[in-house]
Amino acid sequence: MPGVPSLPDCLPADWRDGLFLGRVQTAAGPSPILVRHGVAYDMSRVAPTAAQLVELLPLPADAGEELGPLDMLDLPLLSPVDLQCVKACGVTFALSAIERVIEERARGDADAAADIRGRLEERVGGSIRAVVPGTQEAAALKAALIEDGLWSQYLEVAIGPDAEVFTKAPVLSTVGAGAQIGIRSDSTWNNPEPEIVLLVNAAGNAIGATLGNDVNLRDFEGRSALLLGKAKDNNASCALGPLVRLFDAGFTIDDVRAAEVELTIDGPEGYRLEGLSSMSQISRDPLDLVRQTLSEHQYPDGFALMLGTLFAPVQDRDVAGRGFTHKVGDIVAISTPRLGRLVNRVVTSKDAAPWTQGIAAFMTNLAQRGLLNSAKEKENA
Q1: Would you give the DSSP letter of residue 64?
Q2: Distance between CA 4 and CA 344 in Å, rounded?
Q3: 8 A C-beta contact, residue 333 and residue 321
């Protein structure tokens, strides 16, 4: 795809040292892979789905069919998850909380946002960054903001006891590195959301991390929070990848907590935007977000959890004071050294490659390849 780098340019800096999980499109169909010491292995005969493969970890060093060095792989990367539910957390950073209040008060009108932004940041910018969600100090700040007429449902999930956790995308609908990402054709104010994504197994344990783009429509959600589903879940509106880096002695949840996620957007007209999302500024610990997701729900196939973003683009693009919105042809690159680069090109959701392989078609493909039978035989062995 024009403007999208090749696989070697998207790999983590130390890709030969870590343990990675992913999915590739083979001639027969999608297959999960593991990458050990820089070599990719097709794991479809060990476990036909990424969700099942996760539950078998750790695996013997000789498991899988060798595909060769990862940087020489000539199979397209898919999203690294398949049967896992894709969940997302919103308003987990102070800056994103302020921006969501701006969307709400501007009713999705980008022209009205600049003035509201200035007044809100002056009043709550410092205090909201310092408060710990769910504490007595947070409750006191809430009381003060209510008295000032500045309270919002977004501030409730930013500093209240309960995190915002929602379902971002249907099973099997996410796209991977190099794929097109979709913006609704009727949206006029939108942006990427560069995030770190935790992969959680059926037992509720975070077992690795990848990068994600939680594409967001600021005009739709700003008009009403009840339009969240329409703002968040559209064709090709969630990208994950390039691979899940599995936790081990050299990469742990502390590396996630300390990560600096970089974003660049290169527009077809020569526009360039750069941003940084520092995980050290997240208001809620990543494992607390996992806990809240699991509080009264089970995920027998595990889940991917998008942790939210600090990034809220306010840099003007075309009109002074109107901030940023996507254009078709934008190249969005999300990166951090330990997880690599997730690069996608923006199109409208109508023009993005249609999602055609749902659960029934996926299972039919696995059955035709004899993979479900082999998995059942291993289970009964």
Answers
A1: S
A2: 7
A3: no
Phi-psi region for residue 152, left (φ > 0), alpha (ψ -120 to 50) or beta?
beta
Stretch (H or E) spanning 156: helix 153-159
In 221-330, the DSSP E strands lie at: 238-246, 260-266, 272-278, 303-306
**Residue 107 · residue 125 · CB < 8 Å:** no
**What's the rounded Cα separation, in Å, for the pair 216 and 260?**
21
DSSP at 120: H
Closest to 91 measured CA to CA, from 332, 314, 240, 312 = 312
* Tokens 């089970």, located at residue: 298
Task: Quote the CA–CA distance of 23 and 82 in Å, as a whole number.
Answer: 8
Q: How far apart are the first and last CA of the chain?
A: 44
Residues whose CB is less than 8 angstroms from the CB of residue 121 and which lie 6 or more positions away in sequence, other chains included = 98
CB-CB contact of 245 with 209 (8 Å): yes
Query: Helix or strand or coil: residue 305?
Result: strand
Sheet holding 180-183, edge to edge: 180-183, 340-348, 331-336, 260-266, 272-278
**In this predicted model, what pLDDT tens digit does every residue of 165-189 receive, in sequence order?**
999 999 999 999 999 999 999 999 8
Q: pTM of this prediction?
A: 0.89
Q: What is the CA radius of gyration of the chain?
A: 21
Q: Which two tokens stand for residue 25?
A: 């499109």
pLDDT interval class at 221 (50, 70, 90): confident
DSSP letters, 326-377, are --TT-EEEEEETTTEEEEEEEEETTTSPP----HHHHHHHHHHTTHHHHHHH
Question: Does the pLDDT value for residue 379 go beyond 90?
Answer: no
For the residues 199-207, what does the mean pLDDT come to?
98
Q: Are strands 238-246 and 39-42 parallel, antiparallel or unpaired?
A: unpaired
pLDDT for res 338: 97
| C-alpha to C-alpha distance for 344 and 365, rounded to whole angstroms | 27
* pLDDT (0 to 100) of residue 5: 79
Pairwise CA distance, residues 100 & 107, whole Å: 10
pLDDT, tens digit, for every residue of 320-356?
877 899 999 999 999 999 999 999 999 999 999 999 9
